[in-house]
From TrEMBL:
GO molecular function terms noted in the UniProt entry: carbohydrate derivative binding; transaminase activity
GO biological process, one term: carbohydrate derivative metabolic process
Signal sequence residues: none
Species of the source: Aliiroseovarius sediminilitoris
Keyword Transmembrane: yes
InterPro entries per UniProt: GlmS/AgaS_SIS, GlmS/FrlB_SIS, SIS_dom, SIS_dom_sf
Pfam families assigned: SIS
Annotated SIS domain residues: 32-170, 193-324
PROSITE patterns: SIS (PS51464)
PANTHER family cross-referenced by the UniProt entry: AMINOTRANSFERASE-RELATED, GLUCOSAMINE--FRUCTOSE-6-PHOSPHATE AMINOTRANSFERASE, ISOMERIZING
Database matches in SUPFAM superfamilies: SIS domain (SSF53697)
The protein's name: Glutamine--fructose-6-phosphate transaminase
Length: 334
């Protein structure tokens, strides 16, 4: 699929096209996990797209390490007194490493006993200074406001960190990366997906396991770039109360990582939404002839596939995804 790059969107187009190369480098870098390897539980600390990447990684870490991994609101430290972290790990993910609440959270977690690791794209950042060690994303400059290559690179960096703890996972990651070499991420139904998004007023993005984190990122990008109302749901949760919204016109985008464990859940959601007349679309790495990827790598591939679709949808709507009107590259929150 061609990507319009004349004026609007050229930054996002260029950067999203670099994303899989960034992922492959980040995922295969050597990493010493240090004391994080012995953590009784790991708390991720992130905002926005970085939090979506953290969500992807949380499923992978829990599956491989058999310890709880969940998100901690940075405000616990930036606005509150903090919590005890003795024996726990903190994984701070920040593309810029500059958001003040994340810096405070990294410092607070360390002071309160955590082993603090950071994933950032900015060498010498304040988050890096507050952490014991850093896994670099290595994406180079990212100038478009919507993050793309740093999001996918964050997933890769987290996989490298996990590989530093679990040698077998490192080997499986290397196998997945080898399968990605030279693969085009142009989706064969890109035009149909774009047409569906152009018709849509409300979008559910549905995933399971690592695909759920990817769903959060896709929903965020649809809001950022296309001003579309989009929400992310787990395939299991969406069949409760949220299913009722399907009585209004609704597009449903299902992100299928290909894992055997999630097929029944995704199939059930697909049948239910089609049964009430929703415009349902399902994408998977198998659409571009990829299979047997580790789940986090599959989630990264789904993002790489859908970013150009979102970009071209924004352009068709007359929007500039490089510089959304109300947003800035570094968001300072407390």
């Amino acid at each position: 699929m061609s990507i319009e790059t004349k004026t609007h969107g050229h930054l996002m187009a260029t950067e999203s096209a670099e994303a899989m190369d960034v992922f492959c480098r980040a995922a295969t870098q050597p990493v010493d996990a240090g004391k994080l390897a012995d953590a009784k539980a790991i708390f991720t600390i992130a905002r926005g797209s970085s939090d979506a990447a953290a969500n992807v990684l949380s499923y992978e870490f829990m599956r491989e390490l058999s310890v709880p991994v969940t998100s901690l609101p940075p405000s616990v430290f930036s606005l509150g007194k903090g919590v005890c972290f003795d024996g726990f790990g903190a994984l701070v993910i920040s593309q810029s490493g500059a958001s003040e609440d994340l810096v405070r959270a990294a410092k607070g977690a360390g002071i309160n006993g955590a082993s603090v690791m950071a994933i950032t794209n900015q060498t010498g950042s304040a988050v890096e200074a507050a952490s014991e060690a850093t896994v670099p994303i290595g994406a180079g400059p990212e100038l478009a406001v919507p993050a793309t290559k740093t999001v996918i690179g964050s997933i890769g960096a987290g996989m490298a960190l996990l590989g530093g703890i679990v040698p077998d996972y490192k080997a499986r990651t290397a196998k997945s990366v080898a399968a990605l070499k030279g693969v085009s991420t142009n989706h064969p139904r890109a035009k149909a997906l774009q047409s569906a998004l152009l018709r849509a007023r409300n979008v559910y993005v549905i995933g399971r396991d690592t695909g759920y984190g990817a769903a959060h990122e896709v929903a965020l990008k649809l809001k950022e770039c296309c001003s579309l109302h989009a929400e992310a749901y787990s395939a299991s949760e969406v069949l409760h109360g949220p299913l009722q919204l399907a009585t209004n016109p609704l597009m449903v985008l299902i992100l299928d990582t290909g894992s055997d464990r999630i097929q029944d859940s995704l199939d059930q959601a697909e049948v239910r939404f089609k049964g009430v007349g929703c415009d349902v679309h399902r994408i998977s790495p198998t659409d571009i002839d990829l299979s047997d990827l580790v789940p986090a790598a599959a989630a990264a591939v789904l993002l790489a596939v859908i970013y150009p679709v979102i970009l071209n949808t924004a352009l068709a709507l007359g929007l500039d995804p490089d510089t959304p009107e109300t947003l800035s590259k570094v968001t300072q929150t407390t």
